[in-house]
Model the fold of this input.
Amino acid sequence: MGQERFADVVERFTNGFAAGAAAASPETVKQWQEELDRNVRRLTNLGKLATAGEPRTGQTPRQEIYKRNKSRLYRYASSRRHRTPILFVPNLGISRPYIFDLLPGGSFVEHMTREGFDFYLLDWGVFGPEDNDLTFEDCVVKILPRMARKVLESSGAEELTVLGYCMGAPLSASFVASHPEIPVKNFINMAGPIDFSKIGLFGLWLDRRYFDVDRFVDTLGAVPADLVKAGFKLLKPTMDLSTNLNLWWNLWNDKYVEGFTALNKWANEYVAFPGEFFRQWVRDFYQGNKLFRGELVFGGRPVRLGEIRCPVFVVGAKEDYIAPPACVRALIDAVGSREKDYTELPGGHISLIAGRGAALHCWPKVSGWLAPHS
Amino acid sequence: MTDASAATIQLFDMWRKQLEESTQAWTRLVSQAPAPPPDPMAFWRPVLNQGLEQWARMFAQTPASPDLVTQWKQFLDQWIEAWSRVLGQAMNTEVFAQLMGRSLEGWLTAQAPFKKAGEQALEQAVTTLNLASRSQLTAVAKQIVELEERLERVEDGVQAILRRLDHKERA
Done:
């Protein structure tokens, strides 16, 4: 076999194929014509993809309410049928927040505003070397309380809902737990890691036995966007392959291509971490699991999840390998709230909140839980 | 639908069988050859040959219709998923974490002197040209950030006083 010429095998393959093709029925011929048509559309869309400009993301009308250094607070236009405004806290670094308002008809923000919620988004911004001293603690003690007050001021409401997604959940949980003077009516955690002993691959890779975070930050100053990208790509090495295969398969579908272009733009736009933020994030959360253990002290205040007493809603994603459901669900047992609900939905870390699946499963669940609480 | 999934399972089994056979072929090849083969394709030929033979057999048995393309797509999806699982398991080990930690450590050791030298050279070059250096610009930006923070603290203080006055007036 090893000595056989490659061309001989190809010839046998071609002969086999020809024998099969001879038995083709008119129905099969029709199907092949349709397939051919799809391929023509695939090639047309491939050409469009290559020459297309930037997709228009983040189209829901909004107003900048407040800015502090790189961070911005936006309020979205809505009928505001519900009294309690929502402060949405996404992750800091890693990626840009327009994923939550990707395209009309495929936007979490658009869904929430259409449901009549007064929706505020905190955009942490893109940090530079001048922000390397910004810590996790600064975000909890200085930025989040101010953002919450600005939400209350501009909405005229007496209470607000805090909704944290991904890293935004431990950030906002730390804030809610340590700032009882801020009137938080509800707290929602969407795919936010809480018990870091169940975090999965990242937890193993960032274990203090293998990863010296001090040496890392002292050498680099910050975590460059390219390194963030490398880390996330390594988490799922076959992701690009399956993405491109699915793109080719669906390339005939204009709607799919439109969504892909926007999502692809977002998926390749990574954001750097400020050095000190990353140091504290890895040391206290991944390596120390201090939030879950109640060992954090921010601004002289102890951070105890048991101090969260408002109604809590936690959403985990079944196939989430960044924040596995078990580590997200841990908030339910840790808070001191009487009313607390957990739901586990199909999808991964991103598809939980963006895409067709999210519109079907996640968004109605969140707005459905929140409406009677607002 | 059932036919399609049965065909997919069959395809998956074929792929698994093919992988096992190729692994055996590789093992034989590696254990027999005392020196690296002169032909670079020799390593991949067993798997290519077997893959092509399987496909040829399948195409010869089945009428060629676009259903076959769908099955091929499902086959690739499962193939990617299987590799993803295998890689995920391999990466979820202490050995991999240790290896990655060591590589990062090595990279940082190599990176540190280059980074420092590069920064120093750039600093010297812009100073010679009488331009502001990166560290000077960063320092100015930091001062602006601190100034903004102080202003906010003053603003907070004024607002707290105003609130207290307002409460007093109402009382």
